Automatic annotation (TrEMBL):
Chain sites annotated for binding Cu cation: 72, 76, 165
Keyword Signal: yes
Cysteine disulfide links: 72-76
PROSITE patterns: PROKAR_LIPOPROTEIN, THIOREDOXIN_2
Highest taxon of source: Bacteria
Protein's UniProt keywords contain tRNA processing: no
Family stated for the protein in its record: Belongs to the SCO1/2 family.
The protein, known as: Protein SCO1/2
UniProt xrefs under InterPro entries: SCO1/SenC, Thioredoxin-like_sf, Thioredoxin_domain
């Protein structure tokens, strides 16, 4: 299967905090839509406890990765809540399989997202959710390697700012290779709830072996 069209389309489909980067129709595919895609790569970042963490530290585990930031007013907390609700159900129904999965939150706002800030944030969603941050250069490289786009949005006269970013919940395999996009809701289809926990759970049940 040729993955070039997927790679070429990712920056467009991922446009800034609004697009559906996964869907319930993933379950109908015999192979994850990201298999063979060049997404991901080695990194060293800082976790919520201030410890250095490498991508290879998760070798042998599936990795459920979401990019966002703690000051996000709406999209990030809703997405994370639904993803982690599904993961909690997965833990309850299939604990042995859930133990093979590491949920990871990576900040795209390193200037404000200190380890202490991220620790409070990830603890609100699930005790196994790891939060990662780094220097602006480290985050920029990781975002590029993981096909994530983001930019700082400032209003004239305002002291605060928002960060526009793509919604890209990825599922990676134990070897670190990408498998599939995890469902999130598409605001363009208000009558369809693509990101419901049931759909996220179905995605985990399909791909985690």
């Amino acid at each position: 299967m040729n993955k070039a069209p997927i790679l070429a389309a990712l920056p467009v489909l991922a446009l800034l905090a609004a697009c559906n980067m996964g869907g319930a129709d993933n379950a109908s595919s015999p192979q994850g839509e990201l298999v063979g895609a060049r997404i991901g790569g080695p990194f060293t970042l800082t976790d919520q406890d201030g410890k250095k963490v490498r991508w290879d530290d998760f070798k042998g585990r599936y990795r459920l990765v979401y990019f966002g930031y703690t000051y996000c007013p709406d999209v990030c907390p809703v997405d994370l809540q639904r993803i982690m609700q599904a993961f909690a159900r997965f833990e309850k129904e299939k604990p042995a399989l859930a133990a093979k999965v590491q949920p990871i939150f990576i900040s795209v706002d390193p200037e404000r997202d200190t380890p202490a800030t991220i620790k409070t944030y990830v603890n609100a969603f699930h005790p196994r959710l790891i939060g990662l941050t780094g220097t602006p250069d480290e985050i920029a490289k990781v975002a590029k390697d993981f096909a994530v786009i983001y930019h700082r949005e400032e209003s004239q006269g305002a002291s605060d700012y928002l960060v526009g970013h793509s919604r890209t919940p990825y599922l990676f395999g134990p070897d670190g290779a990408p498998i599939a996009l995890v469902p999130v809701d598409d605001p363009a289809t208000p009558d369809v709830d693509e990101g419901a926990p049931d759909h996220v759970l179905a995605s985990l049940e399909k791909w985690v072996k």
